Amino acid sequence: MNNEKLLKYLEDKIELKKQDKTELSNHKVDLSSIKVIKDAISNLKNIEKDATKVADKFEQSVKESNKFYQDLLQERNAIYTWVNNEAPARISDFEKAAKELGVDSNSVPEIKELQKLIQLGKELVKALDDYKRPSLT
Q1: Low-confidence residues of the chain: pLDDT under 70
Q2: pTM for the whole thing?
Q3: What is the DSSP string of 35-93?
Q4: Are 91 and 111 in contact (CB under 8 A)?
Q5: Do 62 and 70 form a contact (C-beta atoms < 8 A)?
Q6: d(CA 6, CA 2)
Q7: Please, what sign has the CA dihedral across residues 96, 99, 104, 110?
Q8: N or C of the chain: less Cβ packing under 10 Å?
Q9: Looking at residue 134, what is its pLDDT?
Q10: In the prediction, which pLDDT does 34 show?
Q11: Residues contacting residue 46 through CB under 8 Å, at least 6 positions apart
Q12: How far, in Å, CA of 71 to CA of 81, rounded?
């Protein structure tokens, strides 16, 4: 009987060891699962921080682009005013004065050059009108 008790004792011990190993294995899985989750949390926080920095830089670039657009619009408006109002008015005034003196204004090279520049200016205004204001949406 002692042998039977000893055998039973050993079998119980072996069974307990198996259970301990299983429990330890489960704990290792639990611990490694927690580590994986913590790594995921850390990675997402870093990605979110990086994305925020990039978004902030993007927004700043759009703000700067808006300033450049305003400058472009200001230049476009200046060209528009000159090619549609100022330059034609100067040509008209010159033509009146030239007519009074009996001079053909079409024979004056500067008038021809100004008329070409007016045409180029009108084309430039059309090209500048294609630009759109930068926006975040």
Answers
A1: 1-3, 6-7, 10, 13, 16-31
A2: 0.60
A3: HHHHHHHHHHHHHHHHHHHHHHHHHHHHHHHHHHHHHHHHHHHHHHHIIIIIHHHHHHH
A4: yes
A5: no
A6: 6
A7: negative
A8: C
A9: 85
A10: 79
A11: none
A12: 15
Distance of CA 29 to the CA centre of its chain: 43
Unique residue bearing structure tokens 């290792």: 28
Q: 65 near 133, Cβ under 8 Å?
A: no
Neighbours of 9 (CB within 10 A): 10
Specify the pLDDT at position 25.
61
Confidence at residue 42, expressed as pLDDT on a 0 to 100 scale:
93
Q: Angle at CA 21, nearest 5°, toward 19 and 23?
A: 70
Give the largest Cα separation in the chain, rounded: 146
Structure tokens at 64: 């700067």
By the 8 A CB rule, do 122 and 79 touch? no
Residue type, 90: R
Name the nearest CA neighbour of 86 among 119, 118, 120: 118
Burial class (CB in 10 A: 0-12, 13-18, 19+), 83: buried
Structure tokens at 53: 């920095």
